[in-house]
Write the structure tokens for this entry.
Amino acid sequence: MAAPAPTSDAGAQAPGSPLGALSQLVQDALVSGTSLRRLGERAVDPESGQAISWQYFQKLVKNPPASPPDPVQMRALAAALNKPYRRIQEAAAHQWLQYEATELAGYDEEVRIIVGHLAGKSKAELMRWRYMIEAEERAKREAGE
């Protein structure tokens, strides 16, 4: 199978190729049917109004730069990929710094307490709690809450 030309909108990575975390988010968007050009159209930092081009997305998947994106680029990436800025930061930190975020940043005290109670539970217990929470959410949606 021939690789697409550098200006192609395909942006597909060879199967089985290891990608960094941020590059994988871009690849996932491409696999789901979003084109490189469409990503480029949506890649505008909401704070500064600065944009990044579709070629940057292609570069992330094909030949990632040696340096991580700056905050403006990360906000534009978040907008294009429809992901929280925090998720883009975590993916960039993992890809370029091999840093794995493990804290519960962005959650209030109640959520942290609930997670603390679940820590250490068996896989079966965790699945039981997950199913109960999901059933509650479904019931709320069906009731129109």
